[in-house]
Amino acid sequence: MNAYQNLSLLDIGLAAALILVNGALSVALNLGLERRLLIAAVRTVVQLLLIGYVLGWVFAFSRWYVVLPLMALMTVIAGLAASNRGRRTYAGQRVDSLVSIWGSSWLIGAFGLFAVIRIHPWYEPQYTIPILGMILGNTLTGVSLGIERMTEELTAGRGAVEMSLALGATRWEAAQGPARQAVRAGMIPTLNQMAVVGLVSLPGMMTGQVLAGQSPLQAVRYQIVIMFLIAAASGLGVVGAVVMTYRRLFSPDHRFMAARLIERKAKKRGG
Amino acid sequence: MLKETSLVPLVAATGVVRRDAQRGTMLLHPTNFTLNEGERVAITGPSGSGKSVLLRTLALLDPCDAGFVTWRGERIQRARIPAYRRRVAYIAQRPAMLDGSVEDNLRYPYTLATYRDARFDRHAAARLAQAAGRGADFLDKFASDLSAGEAQIAAFVRVLQLAPDVLLLDEPTASLDPASARAIEALVSAWFDDAGSARACIWVSHDPEQARRVAARHLTMTAGVLAEAKDAR
Predict the structure, then answer these.
(1) What are the structural domains, with CATH classification, of chain B?
(2) What was the pLDDT predicted at A165?
(3) Distance (Å, rounded) from C-alpha A232 to C-alpha B40?
(4) Distance from the B102 Cα atom to the nearest Cα atom in chain A, whole angstroms
(5) Which of A75, A148, B70, B186 is most buried per CB count within 10 Å?
(6) Residue A168 and residue B59: Cβ atoms within 8 Å?
(7) Which of A43, A61, A79 is the endpoint of a domain?
(8) CA dihedral B201, B206, B212, B218 (to 10 degrees)
(9) Is residue A270, in this structure, part of any structural domain at all?
C-alpha cells in the first residue's frame, strides 16, 4: 500500500483555482453565473471545512448524546431541503418531506448498521454519520422528485382526476395514476444509479476507502451494501411522501382539494 | 311533468353555502333546491355567477361551507359518496379523456369498485355512439385524435352507458359545434325518456334557446343567488 497523501491548504487552493475555468466559461458564454459560482465555491469550502471540524470533534468525543443530535440535525436539513423544490406546494409539505425522509432513512439505516454491518457501540460515529448521510442524500432527491411530480401530475391532470371522482371513483382510485407516476419519478434516479455504478461512476465512499488504503474488494462490498440501503430507503421515502401528499390533497369524502395546491412564489433557489 | 306527487326529491340541497377558500367571498348564497323525479331543469346566468359551483356542490365535488345535500331524502355518508356519484353523474364542460382508445375510456368506469356489479357492454356502447351520429369505428378511435365534439360525445357515452338517475350537466355543449351539441341533446333526451319519468337532470347553459329545448323548469343564477326564472312558462 502506498502512503496516504495528506493535502495541505496550498493543495486545496490549487484545486479551488479550477473554479476560474467555470468562471471563464460563464463570462465567455454570457451565462451570468459568476455570482452563483462564487457562492457555490465558497459554500463548498466552508461547509466541508466546518463539517470536517465537527466530525473530527464528534469522532474524538464519541458519545451517543452527541452523535444522535447530529444525526437528527442532518435529517432535518435533508427534510427541509427536499421540501424546497417544485413549482407548487401545499400546507404541510415540509412536514411530509421531513417525516418520510426521517422514517425511511432511520429505519433502513438502522437495519444496515445493526443487522448488516453490526457496529459497536451502536452509535459508532465513524459508521453512523457517513452512512446515514449517504442514505439521506439519495432519499432527499427521491422524495423531492416524488412530491414535485405528484403535484405536477395533479395540476395537469385535474380534469381526469375530477372525471374519475364524478364517475364514482374513490379518492384512491382517482389518485392512483398520478401517484404511480410520482413514485416512478422518485425511484428512477436510484435505479439508474444502480445500473451504472462501477461502470460509469465510482461512488464517493468506495473511492474514499480505496484512497485510504482499503482493499478494493472490501470497498466494493461496502458499496454494494450501501446501494441497497439507499435503494430501500429512497423507495420507502418516496412512497411515504407520495401517500402523505395524496392524503393532504384528497379529503376523506372523496374530493380533490385543488385549492390546497399553491404556486410557489418565485424566489431565488436556496440550498 | 307537472303532476307532482308527494314523493321524496331525488336530490335536495338545504341551505348550502359556498365561499371562496382563499378570499372568503360568497360564491353561492344560502340555497335551497330540490330536484324531483321526472324534472328537467335549466339554469342560466352570466359566467362566474355560481352555476358550476351549485352543480359541483350537488355532485359533492366541492365541500359545502354550510348546509347539506340529500339523496332520496337521506344525508349521504362518506363511504356512500362514490355510490351517490354513480347515481348522480356530473359532466364537465371540458371532457377529460384518458390515454388509449374510446373503448378504453368507456371501459374505465367498470374498473372502479363502485361498478363491481356492472360489466362493459360493447353493443350498448356502440348503440349510444350511433345514436349520437358516430360511425361503427368510433370506439376504436384514439382519444387523442377526437375533436372537441367527439370527445364530449365519448364522455356522454361513458356516463350514459352506466344508466345514472340524475345528470348534472355543466355547460357540456358550450364550446361545441351545433351538430355535436344537437347530438348530445338527443342522447340526453333518449336517456331521459328511457325510464319513464324516474330520471332527472339539471342543464346549465349559456344559451336561452337551448335551455328552452332541454328543460321544462327554468332557473337563473345571478351573483350566487338562485331564483326561478321570471319568464317561466
Answers:
(1) 11-96+164-228 (3.40.50.300)
(2) 97
(3) 56
(4) 15
(5) A75
(6) no
(7) A61
(8) 60
(9) no
> Within a domain: residue A49?
yes
Query: In sequence order, which residues have a C-beta less than 8 Å from that of residue A126 and are 6 or more positions away?
Result: A59
Task: Judge if ipTM > 0.90.
Answer: yes
Yes or no, beta carbons of A167 and B94 under 8 Å apart: no
Residue in B with minimal Cα distance to A162:
B61
> Is A166–B85 a contact, with Cβ atoms under 8 angstroms apart?
yes
Interchain pair B112, A162: CB under 8 A: no
Of A159, A167, A253, which has the smallest distance from its Cβ to B112's Cβ? Answer: A167
| Separation of alpha carbons B157 and B143, rounded Å | 13
In a shared domain, residues A208 and A253? yes
The model's pLDDT over B178-217, given as tens digits with 9 standing for 90+, comes to 999 999 999 999 999 998 889 999 999 988 899 999 999 9
pLDDT at B5 over 80: no
**pLDDT tens profile A99-125:** 999 999 999 999 999 999 999 999 999
Q: Which residues contact A125 (CB under 8 A, 6 or more apart)?
A: A55, A58, A59, A62, A66, A67, A70
Mutate to test the interface with A, among B58, B81, B159 (most CBs of A within 10 A): B81
**Angle subtended at Cα A50 by Cα A201 and Cα A142, rounded to the nearest 5 degrees:** 40
Q: Does some domain include residue A138?
A: yes
Q: Which among A168, A252, A259 is the nearest to B22, CB-wise? A: A259
In a mutational test of the B interface, the residue from A155, A158, A163, A173 whose CB has the highest number of chain B CBs within 10 Å is A163
Task: For residues A9 and A37, state if they share a domain.
Answer: yes
Q: Which of A157-161, A182-186, A212-216, B40-44 has the lowest mean pLDDT?
A: A212-216
Q: What is the pLDDT of residue A197?
A: 87
pLDDT at B4 over 80: no
pLDDT, residue A125, reads 93
Contact state of B82 with A164 under an 8 Å Cβ cutoff: no
Note whether B21 contacts A259, CB cutoff 8 Å: yes
A271: in domain:
no
Asked if A229 and A131 sit in the same domain, the reply is yes
- Counting the structural domains of chain A, the total is 2
Q: Are residues A131 and A195 in the same domain?
A: yes
Distances (CA, A) of A97 to A177, B58, B204: 21, 35, 42
Residues of the domain holding A101:
63-263
- Higher-pLDDT residue of B120 and B2 is B120
